[in-house]
Amino acid sequence: MVDSSIDLKESYEILNKYPPEKRFTLAILQDVQKQYGFVPRETMNLIAEYLRLPVSEIYSMATFYKALSLKAKGKYIIKVCNGTACHIRGSNALMDEVAEVLDIIPGETTSDGLFSIEIVNCLGACALAPVMVIDDKYYGGMTKEKVKSVIEEYRRAK
Ligand code: FES
């Protein structure tokens, strides 16, 4: 499990930017997501207190919007494209290999907090299919065989 202890100072700073009104809930949550990369439980409690709303209401909103995440993401986000071109060229096998090497499934984060994996739609680089992206770096013509060594590079760089 990723350590979710966070510095709440930033949470207070975000809340201070908004009047304590319900209509700002989503804007606050978006700022929190941007700040931490996810919406920490402790911050949801603070928002609820500040807006005088039940925590359950903040939680429902945080789970409803896809752009918001309740879990901390890894230091490196590995995206495997499953758009048509990549699918035809074997993105499923690629995804399986990434999942096996990291021992997690898409949407999860490794226990050391280093990697998260996501399946995404076309990344706009179909000529390079199948494509995998780590942070902003594109890996085109990816094969199952290359997965391990690419991931190792990032492990070494941590
Ligand atoms: S389908 Fe994968 S980059 Fe377009």
From TrEMBL:
Binds 1 [2Fe-2S] cluster. InterPro entries: NADP_DH_HndA-like, NuoE-like, NuoE_dom, NuoE_N, Thioredoxin-like_sf. GO terms for molecular function: 2 iron, 2 sulfur cluster binding; metal ion binding; oxidoreductase activity. It comes from the Bacteria. Pfam families: 2Fe-2S_thioredx. CDD domains: TRX_Fd_NuoE (cd03064). Keywords: 2Fe-2S, Iron, Iron-sulfur, Metal-binding. Its cofactor is [2Fe-2S] cluster. PROSITE patterns: COMPLEX1_24K (PS01099). The keyword Nucleotide-binding does not apply. [2Fe-2S] cluster binds at residues 81, 86, 122, 126. Belongs to the complex I 24 kDa subunit family. NCBIfam families: nuoE_fam, PRK07539.1-2. This is NADH-quinone oxidoreductase subunit E. It comes from Sedimentibacter saalensis.
